[in-house]
Amino acid sequence: MTESRTDQLTLVAFMQASNVSVFSGSWRYASSAADYLDLRYYQRIARTLEDGKFDLMFFDDRLAMPSIYGNSPDEAVRRGARPIKLDLTAILGAMAAATDHLGLGATYSTTYYEPFHVARTFATLDHLSRGRAAWNVVTSVNDAEARNFSVDAHTEHDRRYDRADEFIDVVSKLWDSWEDDAIIDDRTTGVFADPDKVHELGHKGEFFSVQGPLTVPRTPQGRPVIIQAGQSGRGRQFAGKWADLIFTGNPSQAIAQEHYADQKATIAAEGRDPNSVRILPMVYVITGETEDIARQKEAIFLNELVHPQASLALLSEVTNYDFSGHSLDDEITDELVDSISGIRGLVQGVKRHLGDQPMTLRVLANHRATLLQGPRFVGTGEQIAEQMADWFNSRSCDGFVIAATHFPGAFEDFTRLVVPVLQHRGLMRTDYTGNTLRENLGLARPANHFADTAAPAADTTPAPLAAALPEAVGA
After folding, report:
1. Potential cystine with 26: which of 305, 406, 425, 454 (Cβ 3.0-4.6 Å)?
2. 474-282-416 Cα angle (round to 5)
3. How far is residue 158's CA from residue 172's CA, in Å, rounded to a whole number?
């Protein structure tokens, strides 16, 4: 495995099309903006991030309200625990119009959407944004989502990844179904495109039957950037096979270092260059003009804004288990963990973070709903830049997904106070250098599956580009 990698941080902003940030109490913070149903709200945030030279912003999504707790959405609605999730298509289009360089990503589920729909959505965004689209691939989390799509129960974990493997394979081929030079646009002869360079898939697999071709030509990036956040063994293997950016949730730097090394080895085992994939842990950043100001903010976020019922509603959502019959002081026993599918990794991660502290339902729930969920960088711009540099230089990450405590202030503070320090240290760009998201990330443009298989590479791809393309990004 080569030791070379970019010497600058990849910075991604984690967004919600919602009344809250990922921190579920953010709507109660005094300076949180309340116009989240207005496109201009998202455009303001996008312009702030572009001013801060972020690589990318991407939106989380769920396809249901948090309604596993008590078999009802009441607590989520009452406590503002992410009851609102807007459709992302219109938002991304508006943000593309408001920016020129910032990457734009969205979460779409492989469990409840279809490959053709997802391929067309992101290919269209990539064209309209001139090459800035990214797809965060998820398999969804719970029965509430299933019931919104005419299904009684959520599919078992490994079967969801079986479907996701076939799904992303089909999407990749749909993105490639037009070769780069398929459009001729000869108005004299009346020939618009070369049909020999527009390909049907004829795909018939276990989960999907897709004829193709896609109704959108090949995009500026070749294929949009792929983000994935699998934490389980199967999830890490899936990310190693497909992802360009891997979004992780590690509660401490020591765990992040272990995850980093393990995931890079998994990428190599999939036949890909580990340095072509960025591993980015989610972190909260709370900054102030002085450390005391930052610590005062931290105390408010940790202690005052999240209601316990909101914590339980969100824990039930992510584990697909109804905790309404438990007390907050109930201990998380091995028997309880064994009875809840998908909770073991969460519990193990939190236990390692807590050390000898007893694991109760209150503690576990708080890690899902408050700033305890991930690492916190707290302090002045200099102090936060120093913490980020330490993580980056110690091979704990290739950059960060910045989770906002509140919108838009958290990103405004970061851009104003932290970014100039990172730039001065040479850890961040001072301006965008590429035209597309892939170029700004330093990622190669993928080879076209059909161009590769239809003829020798030398006949279809310029030699300098062919030498730079990774083999395993595609089908």
Report:
1. 406
2. 110
3. 21
